Amino acid sequence: MRITKEQLLVIIDPQKDFINPDGAYAKRHSGIRQILECKRKINELLAETPAERLLVIYSDYLPNQFGAGLSMAIPGTSGHQIDIAIQVSHRLIAKTAHSSFSSEEFSSHLEKNNIKELILCGFLAEYCVKQTAIDGLSRGYKVSVLSELTGTGDDVQERKAQALKELQQYPLFSSDHQDFKRSENANSADEV
């Protein structure tokens, strides 16, 4: 996928608690096959995307931040660890709420680098990806969500569909980045 200097690929919450079969999220849902497929595709995208064109955003949550028994991505736990193939050159930024814009460092990075468009993927579609998209759109950024690289539990796929549908109301939103669609189609044609 080609990413211009005014675009930024943002990979949200690729942490063990969200994307590992032993993570807290998987234990609460009947399956995470779709999440594991997204993780595989994100790892492929990581390998072909220059480090300066992407950010990995991860959660630093407090115990029970979202309610009793909903502790995930707590610093110092194994579930907090990044669970994709990041390199030393990849920049990681912590956030403390669903939206990546809860991080002042994230907002500053966008401004400092004159970013105009966010290309989002990651976990979970109906929470952190959706809220980051809404906050980006409300700040005037063009936002794309790579739906094939954005996951949630197998038993709640309707939440992902609803989140993407809600985002369609924003004029600066597109449900998939065109360059990603072309590269996926080209790869499919090569495989036939």
Q: Any low-confidence stretches, pLDDT <50, length ≥5?
A: 185-192
CATH architectural type:
3-Layer(aba) Sandwich
Strand order of the largest sheet: 3-2-1-4-5-6
Distance between the termini: 20 Å
Classify the helix fraction into a percent range: 25-40%
Topology, number of strands: 6
CATH class: Alpha Beta
Radius of gyration: 16 Å
Structural class: alpha/beta
Largest sheet: 6 strands, parallel
* Helix-strand sequence: EHHHEEHEHEHEH
- Quick one: CATH superfamily? Isochorismatase-like
List the total number of helices.
7
**Average pLDDT over all residues:** 92
What is the topological layout?
Blueprint: E1 7-12, H1 16-19, H2 24-28, H3 33-48, E2 54-59, E3 91-95, H4 104-112, E4 117-123, H5 125-138, E5 142-151, H6 157-167, E6 173-174, H7 178-191
Parallel strand pairs: 1-2, 1-4, 2-3, 4-5, 5-6
